[in-house]
Design brief:
Elements (H helix, E strand, L loop, with lengths): L13 E7 L5 E7 L5 E3 L11 E3 L2 E3 L19 E4 L9 E6 L7 E7 L13 E4 L21 E3 L2 E5 L4 E6 L9 E6 L10 E9 L2 E11 L5 E12 L4 E5 L5 E6 L6 E4 H4 L5 E5 L6 E5 L4 E5 L15 E3 L5
Parallel strand pairs: 18-20
Antiparallel strand pairs: 1-2, 1-23, 2-3, 4-5, 6-7, 7-8, 8-9, 10-11, 11-12, 12-13, 14-15, 15-16, 16-17, 18-19, 20-21, 21-22
Length: about 325
């Protein structure tokens, strides 16, 4: 009797490439960061279904819990963050922020929640907000909750301005909309560059900012000048630089969508490292933050239509 087997699990972490092919067909390949190999995508959740990459791993609303969560209505390019592990026994809040170009809208669902009778109490809710700064294309880069969205200890954070960190809280009372506020936070230092690409990452219950420094030459050509990892010290309202993150690797990109981390040795990647995918030079920059070294990789090699394909995004292994 013939038997079938499940496709092999991808080597995580990996970069996901979506690109077009002959006849208008769409293809997806996965680039394993540990060995640099491109593989055909065998993940069902990536095939025509709404799913979102998050710092807690890939999140599919149909498979996230025993209670079948209804498909959310926001655009698929919305930025997603989870308040905790979607497999935890406690309720996990799923937050989707529509991108700056789409509108000032948050979608959220308290997955796993129960009412007094024990019945599933989740549902998708829509919340409009206004951070100021004009409308549409007039808005500045920080005027959206989708910028740098991250979670830590049940709260959500985003880039509000260069001197303030935005906070999103969900009151315990059922039906109460999220509360948006800010906390003062000094800007990330720029010791030897004109600009920086920033990502926010939660590690062991604390928030960190990853700053990839950008230098502009006389011809205005941008080049990577280095990296810095800073713990966000809310008590002192400043960023404190760190030189070690242990047996971990931070994974981020220049799109300000989200940043995450994975166990390094277990995943076959560089401990104490930062893997940063640049959408500008289309290269993967690998930094050792303790030694101050950098390796540049060419992730687009072997990808069809590399010049016209959209930038890849991270798939991060789920971990606690």
């Amino acid at each position: 009797m013939a038997t079938t087997s499940s496709p092999p699990a991808p080597e995580l972490p990996c970069l996901v490439f979506d690109y077009g092919g002959e006849g208008g067909q769409k293809y997806t390949t996965l680039l394993s960061v540990s060995d640099g190999a491109h593989r055909a995508c065998e993940i069902d959740e990536l095939r025509g279904k709404r799913s979102w990459p998050t710092a807690h791993g890939w999140w599919n609303p149909r498979a996230a819990a025993a209670d079948r969560i209804p498909q959310p209505p926001p655009p698929w390019w919305s930025v997603c963050a989870l308040s905790g592990s979607p497999t935890a026994a406690a309720s996990c809040t799923v937050l989707l922020a529509e991108p700056l170009q789409s509108g000032d809208v948050l979608w959220y669902c308290h997955a796993g929640g129960r009412d007094d009778s024990g019945a599933a109490a989740w549902r998708w809710s829509r919340h409009e907000y206004d951070l100021g700064g004009g409308d549409g294309a007039e808005k500045g880069p920080y005027m959206s909750c989708s910028s740098g969205l991250a979670s830590c200890r049940g709260r959500f954070y985003y880039d509000h301005s260069s001197t303030d960190c935005g906070v999103i809280d969900f009151p315990p009372a059922a039906g109460t909309p999220p509360a948006l506020s800010t906390v003062p936070m000094e800007a990330v230092p720029l010791p030897f560059a004109e600009a920086a690409s920033l990502s926010t990452v939660e590690i062991d219950g604390e928030l960190y900012t990853v700053a990839v420094y950008i230098h502009y030459g006389t011809d205005f050509h941008a080049s990577v000048a280095g990296v810095g990892v800073y713990r966000m010290g809310f008590g002192r309202r400043e960023h404190v630089r760190v030189e070690r993150i242990g047996d971990r690797a931070i994974l981020a990109s220049s799109g300000r969508r989200f940043g995450g981390w994975c166990p390094a040795t277990e995943s076959g990647v560089l401990p104490n490292g930062v893997y940063w995918m640049s959408y500008s030079d289309r290269r993967l920059h690998v930094f050792d933050i303790e030694l101050g070294t950098e390796e540049v990789r060419e992730p687009w090699e072997g990808v069809a239509d590399a010049e016209t394909s959209p930038p890849p995004f991270w798939m991060i292994p789920s971990h606690s």
